[in-house]
Amino acid sequence: MTRRICVVTGTRAEFGLLRPLMHALRTQEGIKLQVIATGMHLSPEYGLTYHEIESAGITIDAKIEMLVSSDTASAVTKSMGLGLIGFADAYARLSPDIILLLGDRFEILCAAVAAAIATIPIAHLYGGESTQGVIDEAIRHSVTKMSHIHFVAAEEYRRRVIQLGENPRCVYVVGALGVDAVRNTTLLTRKELEDAIDFKLGRRNLLVTFHPVTLDGRSSVDQMRELLNALGDLNDTHFIFTMPNADPGGGAIKSLVDSFVESRPNAKSYTSLGQLKYLSVMKLVDGVVGNSSSGLIEAPSMGVGSIDIGDRQLGRIRAASVIHCEPNRTQIVQALERLNSSEFRDGLKNIQNPYGIGGASDRIVEIIANQSFEGLMKKKFFDLPNNIISDSL
Question: What does the alpha-carbon distance between residue 184 and residue 173 come to, in Å, rounded to a whole number?
Fold first, then answer.
């Protein structure tokens, strides 16, 4: 009997992670891959990146338009309403046996809620993680509670998912898909990359991505200004910016980046680089700066240092190659000085990535192919032993 596995993707970065998994599912005997594209993939403002899915030879079975033309909290909530309607229709038409979701964005919450109401089991990638500076934290844990099979990146995250009441027999440590992408992608040479992005790298180069921080008392715009003020002092450095996600406040950050880039020939911004160019940039730069998860997950596997600014990724495990600092000019400048120090750069040669060494896609496919879906919807809350609860109080 063929199993219909429906994978939902809403952003360029998410698809970059899911791409090898989609290919593995598509070629697995007994599995029919279904793909739903939504969110930023269908937005001209974010590059209509659903074309990247199609260019990868993957068929999109449903497109769910949900983003309204604003990035306010009200607009995001309205987008979620549209998303719920779209997912309800798509699930009714596709009749998947299980939904596979990655992450913690509002598009994924819509997909999970619609699946729960339709009594379709959910396999969730990367529960148990913590990002204390954004509303994604609550979304991630909510999706965990609506899910039935859990693929986590590390043992620490497995313990958190179990702490949320999930059965340990349904929680699997598989490592991070981002590490698979690094291991399995043939990257561009410096010349090939410069031609592909129409930008010449300098003697020193930084890859910069800063997303909105939705739960911080300090505004994302103010934090971005602090970052740009620190970067503006680096006359010997070239900057490659990738634009923020469609989160509340993302438009204002984009405007600041546009203004910064306009007056500097040593800087250029991109709505979407795509996975190959993004990873190729990461490999060739001197560091990754901002608050993207890629600085914590992919960069260590490349031996590239990163500066993680502010609270967006606060709570995630991290390698010794990650420098954390507060979102103010002084601390960012100090972090940049450390990033460029010979002592720090020498230490990058022996970095171990806590997110694994690769192989996540194969492990996930093997588990899904052999996991019984019967009775998954009836979950029993898994209580921790009383002695563990007492010891923690």
Answer: 20
Q: Which of 15, 187, 190 minimizes the C-alpha distance to 100?
A: 15
Sequence-distant (6+) residues with CB within 8 A of 87 are: 36, 38, 64, 110, 111, 113, 114, 115
- Read off the pLDDT of residues 296-352 as tens digits, 9 standing for 90 and up: 999 999 999 999 999 989 889 999 999 999 999 999 999 999 999 999 999 998 999
Cβ–Cβ under 8 Å, residues 170 and 139? no
> pLDDT by residue (tens digit) across 99-139?
999 999 999 999 999 999 999 999 999 999 988 878 889 99
Burial classification of residue 374, based on how many CB atoms lie within 10 Å of its CB (0-12 exposed, 13-18 middle, 19 or more buried) = exposed
For residues 337 and 330, the answer to whether their CB atoms sit within 8 Å is no
Q: Which residues contact 388 (CB under 8 A, 6 or more apart)?
A: none
Q: Please report the domains of the chain, with CATH numbers, ordered by start residue.
A: 3-174+359-392 (3.40.50.2000), 187-350 (3.40.50.2000)
Instruction: Pick 336 or 71 by higher pLDDT.
Output: 336
pLDDT at 386 over 80: no
**Cβ proximity of 214 and 249 under 8 Å:** yes
> How crowded is residue 235: how many other Cβ atoms within 10 Å of its Cβ?
7
230 phi/psi in degrees, rounded to 5? -70, -40
Number of H helices, E strands in the chain: 16, 13
For residue range 36-48, list pLDDT tens digits in order.
999 999 998 888 9
Q: What is the DSSP letter of 48?
A: -
Nearby residues of 305 by Cβ (< 8 Å), 6 or more positions away = 286, 287, 288, 299, 321, 322, 323, 339, 344, 345, 348
Tokens of 347: 């230490």
